[in-house]
Specification:
alpha/beta; Collagenase (Catalytic Domain); four-stranded mixed sheet; 5 helices; 48% helix; disordered N terminus
Length: 161
């Protein structure tokens, strides 16, 4: 286990955040902490994850290139599937459109941070093999996992308050 400056204890989780978005409203440290907790909740305490924050323009390019959809989306996930060390899994990349997250947060009456966490959970679940687009059954399973992880994250935050 390791400790960060805030005294929180985490398993050996590596989270790299690459910011390509011009939006400055996001706490990268808070997002990294959330990513670590999400991975731990999902039993991925020894995992590596890359998170890219982009704007709608960049997201549209990625969505067009990799999904043949010429429009921005909120989150994309690119699984890696490689073992870094015998007990360290490289999950892959999660790309979040900060612009889209902001739009969705406003419409839902949420904060940007809440929407970013929701999208991060969604992207990480995709990296772990969940896919809501394969079937209705898998969509229900993924929604259930999203709710489970979100509730566990909320309980953790409340316990720290």
């Amino acid at each position: 286990m390791s400790r960060n400056r805030g005294g929180d204890t985490f398993a050996a989780v590596s989270v790299e955040i690459v910011g390509r978005s011009r939006v400055k409203k996001i706490s990268r440290r808070g997002l990294e902490r959330s990513a670590r907790r999400i991975l731990e909740i999902l039993g991925q305490g020894r995992a590596e994850l890359s998170l890219a924050l982009v704007d709608n323009r960049e997201m549209q390019k990625l969505n067009a290139r990799y999904r043949d959809k010429n429009e921005p989306t909120d989150v994309l996930a690119f699984p890696a599937g490689k073992a870094l060390l015998p007990d360290m899994q490289v999950l892959g990349d999660v790309v979040i459109s900060v612009d889209r997250a902001g739009e969705q947060a406003r419409r839902a009456g949420k904060t940007l941070e809440q929407e970013m966490e929701k999208l991060l959970i969604h992207g990480i679940l995709h990296l772990l093999g969940y896919d809501h687009e394969r079937s209705r059954r898998e969509a229900r399973v993924m929604r259930g996992m999203e709710k489970k992880v979100s509730r566990a994250l909320e309980r953790f935050v409340r316990s720290r308050s």
